[in-house]
Amino acid sequence: MGLLSDPTRRRALISLLTRLNTPICAVCYMAGVAWFMGLAFEPFTLRMHMSENAMGSTMVEERFQAGERALVTAKEFGVQKNKAGGMPVDWLVKAMQDRGLEVFTQSFSRTLPFPDENKERFMVKGTNVYGILRAPRAPRTEALMLTAPCSQGNDNNQAVGMLLVLAQYFRSQVYWAKDIIFLVNEHDLIGMQAWLEGYHHTNITGMEWSPLQGRAGAIQAALSLELSSDVVTSLDIVLEGLNGQLPNLDLVNLFYAFCQKFDVLCTFQGKLQRNDWDSPSGYSHAVQTMMLMVLKQASGHSWGDHGLFLRYQVEAVTIKGINSYRQYKTTTTTVGRLLEGMYRKLNNLLERLHQSFFFYLLPSLSHFVSISYYMPAFGLLAAILLLRALNLWVELSAPPATEDGVANVEQQSSSGVLSVVTPLVISHLTGVALYTLPVHFQEMAVEHFPVSETEAVVLTAIAVYTAGLALPHNTHRFVSGEGTEQGWRVLKLVAVLYLAVLLGCTALLNFSLGFILALTLVPVAAGVTPHMPKFPTACVMVVLSPACTLLFSVFAFHELQETPLSFQDTWLLFLSVISQGILDHALYGALVFPLLAMLVYPCWLLFWNILFWK
Amino acid sequence: SIGLAMNSAEQFFNSGHTNNWAILACTSRFWFNYRHVANTLSVYRSVKRLGIPDSQIVLMLADDMACNHRNPKPATVFSHKNMELNVYGDDVEVDYRGYEVSVENFLRVLTGRLPPSTPRSKRLLSDDRSNILIYLTGHGGNGFLKFQDFEEISNIELADAFEQMWQKRRYNELLFIIDTCQGASMYERLYSPNIMALASSQIGEDSLSHQPDLAIGVHLMDRYTFYMLEFLEDIHPASKTNMNDLFKVCPKSQCVSTPGRRTDLFQRDPGSVLITDFFGSVRKVEITVETINLTDSESGELQNESRSYVDQLPVSEIIHQKPKQKDWHPPDGFILGLWTLILLVFFKTYGMKHLKHIL
């Protein structure tokens, strides 16, 4: 008979499972972490290669020469920006019209739920200006995009200057098979979201915008440019988009190929490329780059204007020009040629970019880790939860001690499932409170306490979070089945399975977020029982809770970027990160804050409940 | 002198071919396959220059490169970089364009099985005294040629189409040139007489492209056709260059792949075959002032010989091929008897009661 249908063999297997459960879980955890760290090891990674046939191997000789004119235009734009005290709409419209584009504007307005202290805005009103270069001979079915943000002060003037000069150069060529849209957006991400919503006729975030008068067809690819200085020593590429979505790897390949062609220093995560990736220092460099990407992706924040395009299936990246006062400088003409080359290659596309990977991790610009390589690391961590669940199931279905009567057993098993419902409901209500209370009651908080609105929101969130810690003491009287051995096992079984499903779904959409949460929550889930010493275990649990994970991630992020922070600074940054997370959710539809507040935190609270089970 | 005129008349009627046709097909589309269209157009240009008129050329181009939106020099197709030679010209006549270039249409053109409404320019109206040049280019593999990114023609289909042409007396001699990866696989299965085949690479080898043009941004030609074009540019209608020189075009040092050829089905010695026999249209014109009486007894004999469809020349009489090795099978009845014996022995040994286990 089969392995699982033979009773004796089954019993043997189950006893093996229960005896060795903890060692296997420990081994799985260490294997998962080791697998993840080994991903950046160069022999395990794949070389980047261009997968799209249409963007093939032949390169064109680029003829762009107007780098100096770009700088002049940038200065002029800066002057006009200062004069207008914001976006010089009329000047930009005239500039684009003079260059032969079809120019349109869009106005938008949005009131943030509470003031944004990082960018110092609360009621945002702005205008986007965009010009369409019509392809001379092609039907207007497809388009490419180039965007430059109109930022405060003197930032990104050179980006707009380059955009205008490129528009003029592109206009005189006959070989465009797609329309090109040149967009200058105000208030960076908010303006971009307004434009995208207007272009695609959706309204996800409740922003008000005027409808777009001019359209150009389906957008195949977009580039967002950020250039703030006349002198550029390196170009950085930013990939991470909203909710951890990444652009197609072919776009990164394209950028890297042109970096190599023009001998431009290209960086990723601000780190240079090197030749010796398989040496120990090379390995640590690669691990740092990969960890930075993981942390950025896990935040669910869009790290450039390009991040909002990804939701609409438009592949986009942000290219930042960086001046690090090196001796080797790149001229603006070279940057313009690089962009020209990229656009000519994108012009050859016949379909949307789909041949290369959408899910990957980059330890460097020349190597990548595909989803099939990194998923097993998460799988090993999720396996721990499943093993634990099996163990609990076996314990629950084992016959009880003989002194209890049969009736007792029945009563316990029937109350088993119902006793779980109460902690579940209470935890989720706390989660909902964490999601809604901070923003709704900020006025009341400001009335009663001497804090600004932003601080009120953040501190309310932390208060609700900490209040949840006190729940087990206060809600035990509502919980039936208290004090039974079965009760907490059933709750733990449900909680472990719930966590497994939750983390699995998260890892599929945003691997980095799922993995980081798994790293801290899986030991909690696997190890917690009411029989452990309360105070030390409670401390460990708080350290491994989602909020502290966030705190440590902020700290690690700055360590990896070689700008270490003191504890005071880390705490302040942590508070601002919470407010940014809530704002991201309100403004762009980022899902990290609702996920953490309404699903992950209640799950953690269930384990907290189990710890304090009486 | 009448005898001399009669002699030349006899020679005239006994010579090989009287007209030339060309079928030139480019089977791939999309901008990055620019070089296949340029290949086909350069052969078209040579063939037209050497005399074959448009009415006797069937030109099939799967995509329009000259007017492609991405062409920085619209209405041109270049074969040499720095835009030295525009093979598109201003009198190109494309017979099959775009999606009309399909395997079905190609085979129908070859075999003549076209619907009655097809115009003359799209038909191959050859007869048994036509020399036909067939040039194919595109993406290919071992035993197939890709048409249009969604269908393929196999070497067996091609061989059968040529056999149909032979049986319907649609050609006198045929020169088949193919410039694709693993092109030699396409002429492997040919079995009809009077075919000479040339390919740009052997099985397992890739045919490489020649040079990119940095202004246009694509590879302009494939190597084999590029060197063949250079060779053909030196040919004029009266030149006596023969096929052996064509075989030497594009050695491995220039082409990286090894060009291949097949001459065993061809009856004449390649050294005696002029390039213009296939690439040009050299009309045999004999000017004489004598009157020649054609109703001679000798020629009458030839005319009375009836040729019905079944009496055509069997191929094996013309081509001395090695007989195929047939594998030996034991006769069928023997096998049946053997199994009956086995069953009888089985049931005798174990008895009939075991029959119920089987039934």
Automatic annotation (TrEMBL), chain B:
It holds the Pfam family Peptidase_C13. InterPro entries: GPI_transamidase, Peptidase_C13. The active site is at 139, 181 (nucleophile). It comes from the Eukaryota. Heteropentamer. Part of the GPI-anchor transamidase complex, consisting of PIGK, PIGT, PIGS, PIGU and GAA1. Interacts with GPAA1. Interacts with PIGT; this interaction, via a disulfide link, stabilizes the expression of GAA1 and PIGK and links them to PIGS. GO terms for biological process: attachment of GPI anchor to protein; GPI anchor biosynthetic process; proteolysis. GO terms for molecular function: GPI-anchor transamidase activity. Belongs to the peptidase C13 family. Keywords: GPI-anchor biosynthesis, Membrane, Signal, Transmembrane, Transmembrane helix. The chain crosses the membrane at residues 333-351. GO terms for cellular component: GPI-anchor transamidase complex. Coiled coil: none annotated. Pathway: Glycolipid biosynthesis; glycosylphosphatidylinositol-anchor biosynthesis. This is GPI-anchor transamidase.
